[in-house]
Amino acid sequence: MLDEVFPVPTRALIRQGGRACFYRLVNTSPILFQVQSGTKIIMADDRPLRLEAGAYGLLPDYQPLTMENIPKAPRNYQTVALPVPRQLFEDAYARMGPIAVPSRPLPASTSSFPEEAAVLFDYCCQPGNLARLPGAIARARLMELVTWFALCGAVLGEGQSPRLEDRLRQMIESDPAFDWTLAHAARSFNMSEATLRRRLAAENTGFSEILSDTRMNRALGLIHATTLPMAQVALEVGYDSPSQFSARFKERFGVSPRHVRSGSEHFERIGAEVEHSGADALTR
Asked: Would you place residue 264 in the very low, low, confident or very high pLDDT band (cuts 50, 70, 90)?
């Protein structure tokens, strides 16, 4: 283990069979990634970022993003993603000296990536490599990797003050199958249900909305990165009924869970946010 504050990161191999566009995806940790096959388009602040196979990039934490993954026949879309604790980014930047850190966390791609950096990324992504190292060495390897990304133009923006919504997402993400209620959350935050409801409303959201969205984000991750049967994915995120889970997933993302994995149905757009994002112009 790195230590109790920095658990060993575990890479995810994300595969997608059908083209699909997902909006308002929120990561609770910054993610370093490489597109291995297909194309990835990320929208933030109405600015598209397109990455082709072989490109490396950085996804920020707690920023709603629209992401379109496009397979290129005959292969599926595939990306390897490595979550890295935000504190390691800040520690690495502090040791680099003067560095321009964006005022907001936004997605970024590297302008180039030397072979030494690519080898280090592959090493950190191989299961068990970091876990076998002393904690101080594992942290140093990850900070070196973060430094390579920064030198190549992918710098994580400054962290924002955590919103109550972000803290609630973290809590639910720790056990998405748990029968979470407003009362559970209020007790965890040492406040009344009325206060929690009022403070979430001030952030233009609500408990049920965050609960459902966090579960669907987790379900998408399981479908992308595992071969679990859909019924098991449903159970992992708190749904006893696979059909109810599938309906909720399609309501949230505009495509069925099976389309994400196999690409067996016609691609559907999923709402005005995507239609007006400009992503279509990039993919023609």
From this structure: low
Give the number of other CB atoms < 10 A from CB of residue 10.
Answer: 14
- Please state, as a whole number, how many other Cβ atoms lie within 10 Å of the Cβ of residue 135: 13
Report whether 38 contacts 15 (CB < 8 A).
no
- The 10s digit of each residue's pLDDT in 62-99 is 889 999 999 998 889 999 999 999 999 999 999 998 88
CB distance 113 to 34 below 8 Å = no
Q: CB under 8 Å to 71, separation ≥6 — which residues?
A: 16, 17, 18, 19, 37, 38, 77, 263
Other CB atoms within a 10 A radius of the CB of residue 226 amount to 15
What is the share, in percent, of the chain residues with pLDDT greater than 90? 73
Residue 150 and residue 100 in contact, taking contact as beta carbons nearer than 8 Å: no
Render pLDDT for 217-237 as a digit per residue (tens, 0 to 9): 999 999 999 999 999 999 999
Tokens of 103: 């005022």
Find the DSSP H helices in 15-79.
none
**Distances from the Cα of 275 to the Cα of 33, 66, 268, 271, angstroms:** 26, 11, 11, 6
